[in-house]
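cron nightly-structures :: item 1 of 1
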Amino acid sequence: MASVTIRSESCKSCQYCVKYCPKEVLSVGKEVNSKGYQFIVALKPEDCVGCAMCAQICPEAAIEVYK
């Protein structure tokens, strides 16, 4: 089973990862980081297939995927 880790302080909420996730695992959270951005959260982590598309597309390198 794959897992996704998001470094909330690095996230600028560009939402590329949300758009490109084939399983709709990620979503914009309700909390904000210290920079004032609503950071991305893994809303359905059990659906992650480990494709790492989110990590590849993230311009801030705020996401890591483990298989």
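cron nightly-structures :: done
The mean pLDDT is 97.
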